[in-house]
Amino acid sequence: MIIRQGITGRLSKALVVNGFAFLSGLTARDTTGGVREQTEDILAQIDSHLKAVGTDKSRIAVANIWLRDIRTFDEMNEAWEAWVDKESPPARATVESRLAGEAILVEIQVQAVA
């Protein structure tokens, strides 16, 4: 059985299957801020989506982060390190990538144990 949350015409924002929660790649709702502000916005969305499917950030197993410019890695990490569960940080990858729009500076996708 698959449980889906936030279904749009092209994707589900989150789904749970076989004890794992999979979140779609998320971008900031407000793209007027810098990398830190966009990261904080995305992390708040992650908290909300995880809560909606019955889990939380302490149960994130994997995080993938895409940055428009890898030189903003430290700025993104400031927000990440203030947010991440220090007792159970996930495996993580961060890469530079062309993103879907010029104003999008960060995209984050996570998988968690439900």
UniProtKB/TrEMBL annotation:
Q: Which organism is it from?
A: Paraburkholderia sprentiae WSM5005
**Keywords assigned:** Plasmid
UniProt keyword annotation of Metal-binding present:
no
**Origin: domain of life:** Bacteria
Which SUPFAM superfamilies does UniProt cross-reference here? YjgF-like
Record's keyword annotation contains Transferase: no
Q: What PANTHER family has UniProt attached to this entry?
A: PTHR47328, RUTC FAMILY PROTEIN YOAB
Name of the protein in its database record: RidA family protein
Q: Where is the signal peptide?
A: none
Family indicated by similarity: Belongs to the RutC family.
